[in-house]
Amino acid sequence: MSEPTVVETPAALRLASERWRAAGLMVGLVPTMGALHAGHASLIRRAVEECDRAVVSIFVNPAQFRPGEDLERYPRTVEQDLALCAGEGVAAVYLPLVEAVYPPGFATSVSVTGTATAGFDAERRPGHFDGVALIVTKLLVAARADVAYFGAKDAQQCAVVRRLATDLDIGTRIAVCPTVRDHDGLALSSRNAYLSPEQRLQALAIPRGLAAAARAVADGVSDASAVVAAVELELAASPDLEVEYVAAVDPESFVPVATVISGTQILVAARISTTRLIDTLCAGVDEAPAVPPRAVVASAVGTAMAGRG
Ligand code: AMP
């Protein structure tokens, strides 16, 4: 297990990548905000397998957080992240300070317009995807990677990234990797750390809803409103879950569809108190998330509450 090289500036990242490419080596990039978990590890593993050199970026990007969001409290676990990268055989970790990415005088914006940013998280988190587009563009330009890896859970982000990589002739292939779930079906997310045990049990309505959607599609239901209703029914059983949206969209354009076909993305966004969770199921492709039945959860909530005295 060799330690990855830590690079801290865009120039150092570019230099490392250019050297590898000059030697004929293929470079893979995995952009992250750190607090790495098994979901990130699956992207990293794929980059290590498919490319000669894998680079992981760890940067909590202030530009994609709105005022009042969780920028300050976002989990930061750099030592563990570096150990995970070393264990996976990562060649370099890009770990810049905010000033290295956005030095004084920085005045450029990148905005993906059109249907990819016409609703959903773009509407709920105004400016968020401008921040994502800016950092991803900067990372892709500096890393000059052959392939960059993103998670399907963040489906709208994938649509935005694919759009900008195409439109700006970046020359990096965008690879989308399946969602990794925890033992109880909840999609792994750095933000799951914010959930109390009871909130987490309530949050299981999200993968349970997506499982209902997967079953409906497998049973031949193709009417998008019926599939969405199947998800909403499960979500309604968790009273503390504040649903932001449930939708069936085309994966490329992100336009809502009337008919669910293989590849249609079923999206869920919901809040529990101040924690915002999103999840996605790729219809006809992803397996139904395996989630314990509601009755089991109800009794577990009871036990958790009783344990508090
Ligand atoms: P983040 O650190 O949350 O910005 O995520 C970095 C990358 O990891 C993004 O492309 C995410 O979509 C991806 N990712 C996050 N959670 C998961 C998961 N549970 N399974 C697979 N990929 C994930």
Mean pLDDT: 94
Shape descriptor reads globular
Residue windows where pLDDT falls under 50 for at least 5 positions: none
Bound molecules: adenosine monophosphate
In CATH, the topology of the largest domain is named: Rossmann fold
| Broad CATH class of the largest domain | Alpha Beta
Could you characterize the architecture of this molecule?
With 309 residues, the chain is of the alpha/beta class. It folds into two domains: 5-177, HUPs (Rossmann fold, 3-Layer(aba) Sandwich); 190-308, Pantoate-beta-alanine ligase, C-terminal domain (Pantoate--beta-alanine Ligase, Chain: A,domain 2). The chain is built from eleven helices and nine strands. The protein has helices spanning 10-22, 38-50, 78-88, 98-101, 121-124, 128-143, 155-167, 197-203, 205-218, 224-236, 294-307, and strands spanning 5-7, 27-32, 53-58, 92-94, 147-151, 173-177, 241-249, 265-272, 275-282. The strands form two sheets. A six-stranded parallel β-sheet has the order 1-4-3-2-5-6, with helices on both faces. Helix 1 crosses helix 6, helix 6 (128-143) packs across helix 7 and helix 8 runs antiparallel to helix 11. It is globular and about 55 Å long. The N and C termini lie far apart (47 Å). The model has no long low-confidence stretch (mean pLDDT 94). Residues 32-33, 39-40, 42-43, 150-151, 153-154, 177, 179-180, 187-190 line the site of adenosine monophosphate.
